[in-house]
Amino acid sequence: MTTAANGSTHMPALADESALRRYNAFLLTVAGLGGLLYGIDVGIIAGALPYLEATSQLTATQLSIIVAAVLLGSVFSTLFAGVLADWMGRKPLMILSGLTFVISIPVIALSHGYEPLFFGRLLQGISGGLIGVVVPLYLAECLGASNRGKGTAVFQWLLTLGIVAAALVGIYYSYRVESVARTANAATLFGFKDQAWRRIFWVSLPPGVLFVLGSFLVTESPRWLFRRGAKDRALAALLRSRNPKQAAVEIEEMETIAHTAKAKLGEKIHDSLLQRKYAIPFLLACVILACNTATGINSLNGFNTSILLQSGLSDLHAHWGYVLFASVNFLLTMVGMMLVDRVGRRFLFILGTSGIIVSMVGVGILFLQTEKFSLDSRDLIQSMVGPGQELTLRFDHAQADSLLAAKGDAGKAIDAGRASLAIIYSYGDFTAATTFVRSDDSAAAPIEITRASCVPSNKIEALFKNPFANLEAAQTAPLKIDKAIVGRVPNASHGWLVACGLYMFMAFYAIGPGVCVWLALSELMPTRIRSNGMSVALVINQLVSTILAGIFLPFVSKHGYSSMFFLFASFTVVYFLVTAIFLPETKGKTLEEIEAHFEAQGAR
C-alpha cells in the first residue's frame, strides 16, 4: 500500500523512517565494534602476559617490547591514517584495519619465539592506530548532527568495554590455570600456561571478523565521495541515513563550501605556522597529550596483572583485580562523559590529575615498604655462572632459602616460600634484566641468562640500545651480574591495598583526562593547522607511551616498582600545572571563540 484513501503517504514514510533508524543503528554497531577492537588491542596483553612470561623464556626487555609493540605500530599508522583515508576512502581503510587485526591473531597465537610475537603485536598496533583515526572520522562524516555525539560516545564507551572484555577472558583462563595447578604436575601446568596465552588471543578474533563484515556492508562517506566528484553517489549515501530533505540540505552545504574553496584557491596565505597564535595552542596540545600518556595509563593497563602479582595477590586474584580495574574505567568513563559539558574540561582535568598524583604516590609508598627489605645476592649468583658465560637458574623455595641463608640475619626478614628474584646483568657495555620470578610459582620457567638476551645481533639494533657501546667487545665480554635482587612478596592484604590505589588512579583518570584529552585536542587546534597539528600531537602521545612501555620491566627490575610509580606521579605534577595554569576553559565556546582567545594571546 503506497497511498491511503485521502491521498496521504504515512505508511511508506513510517517505513522509510524505520529503515533510516535501522541503518543508523547499524552504523553505531560497526563503530562500536571498532571501539571494541581498539580496547582489545590495548587490554588483551594484560591477561596473557603472566603466562607468556612464565613459558616463553623471553627477557624483561623483550617482554616490554612485546607490550610496547602495539603502541609502536599505532605510532606509524596514526601518522599515515589521515593520508590513507583521503587516498583510498574511509570504508576501504576500515576494512583494511579490520583485516590487519584479524591477520595479527594467528601470527601471535601460533608464534614460537620473539620475532613472530613482535610482528603480530606490531600488526595489532597498526590496526588499532588506523581504527582510532578512521572510525571517528567516518562517523563524523556519515552520521547526522543529532546522532554524531552519540556515535563518538559509543566508540569511546565500547573502547573501554573492549578492555573489560579482555580482562574477563584473562580471568577465565586464570580459573582454568588454578584448576590444573591443583591436580597436575609442573610439566603439565607449564604446557597449559603455554596454551592459555595463545587461546586468550584466539578468543579476540570473532569481533575482528564481525567488524570487517560490517565495514563491507556500510556505504562510503558521503563527504569523501563528494570531494571525489561523485555527487550522485554522495547523495545516495546520505539517503541511507537521512530523509530526502536533510540529504538535499547537506549536499547544498557541500556545494557552497566547495565553491568558496575554489574562490579562495588562488589567494596567497600569509599566515605562518610559527606565529604565536598557532604555536601556543599547538604546543599546549602536544604537552597535554604527552603528559596524558606519561601518567602511565597504557603501562598500567598492559602490566596490571604482573603488578598485582608482585604486590602479593595470587594469579587468580591478580586477574580479578585487573577485571575490576578495567570495569572502573568502563563505568567512570560514562560519568565523565555526562559531566564534561556541565562542569567543564579544565575542572575535570584539575580534578583528575590531582587524584592521579595522590594515588600514584600512595601505591609507590606501599611498594617502598616491602622493597626496603630487598637484598642483593649478586656475588652468590655470579659464582653460579658457568664457563660458557651463561646462567640457568630455577628460583624455587630451596634456591631462595640458599640465597637468604647466605645473607645471615638480614635474610630472615624474607620468607623463602614467598620471595622474588630479579637479576640485572651485563656483557660489556650492554645491560639487561630478567623479570621478577616468585619462589612460590612451581610452574615458573627457569631464569635464562644468555649473551643473545642482552647483546644486540647487529649494529643497527646496538645503535638503538646503546649508541656509545662497543658491540665487538660485548660479543666476547664475560657475564657480569650487576644486581640480583631478592625481595619479599607481601601478603594478599597488601596486594589489595595496591589494587585499591590502582582503582583510584583509574577512577580519576577516566573521569578527567580520559574523557577530556581528545576533546581538548580537537578544540585547541586552530582550523589552519588542525589536521597536521593533531597528527603530530598524536604521534608524540604514542611515542611517549611506547617508550614508557618499553622501559617498564627493565626499570622496575633495576629500581623497583616504587620508583616507577613515583616517576608517573612526577609526570602528572607537570600535567596538573600545565592544565591549571595554561589551559583555558572551552566549555560552551565555539571553535572560533577558542581560536580568537589564542589570537589575542599571540597579539600581546
Features:
604 residues, mainly alpha, 24 helices, 7 strands
Verbal overview:
By secondary structure, this protein is mainly alpha-helical. Among the domains are: 12-218, MFS general substrate transporter like domains (Growth Hormone, Chain: A), CATH 1.20.1250.20; 225-257, no CATH class; 375-491, no CATH class. It has 24 helices and seven strands. The protein has helices at 10-55, 60-88, 90-109, 114-142, 145-183, 186-203, 205-217, 222-227, 231-239, 244-263, 276-294, 297-302, 304-311, 315-343, 345-371, 378-383, 397-405, 459-465, 471-474, 492-511, 513-524, 530-559, 561-581, 591-603, and strands spanning 375-376, 391-393, 419-427, 430-433, 437-438, 447-449, 479-488. The strands form two sheets. Strands 1, 3, 4, 5 and 7 form a five-stranded antiparallel β-sheet that branches. A hairpin with a 2-residue loop joins strand 3 and strand 4. Helix 1 (10-55) runs antiparallel to helix 7 and helix 11 (276-294) runs antiparallel to helix 21. The longest helix has 46 residues, at 10-55. The model is unreliable at 1-15 and 265-272 (pLDDT under 50).
CATH superfamily of the domain at 12-218: MFS general substrate transporter like domains
Q: How would a textbook summarize the main sheet?
A: 5 strands, antiparallel
Shape label: elongated
Uncertain spans: 1-15, 265-272
The level 1 CATH classification of the domain at 12-218 is Mainly Alpha
Tally the beta strands: 7
Secondary structure tally, helices: 24
Please give the share of residues in helix: over 70%
Radius of gyration over alpha carbons?
27 Å
What average pLDDT do the residues reach?
A: 81
Structural class comes to mainly alpha
CATH architecture annotation of the domain at 12-218: Up-down Bundle
Strand content: 5-15%
Named CATH topology of the domain at 12-218: Growth Hormone, Chain: A
What's the N-to-C terminus distance?
A: 69 Å
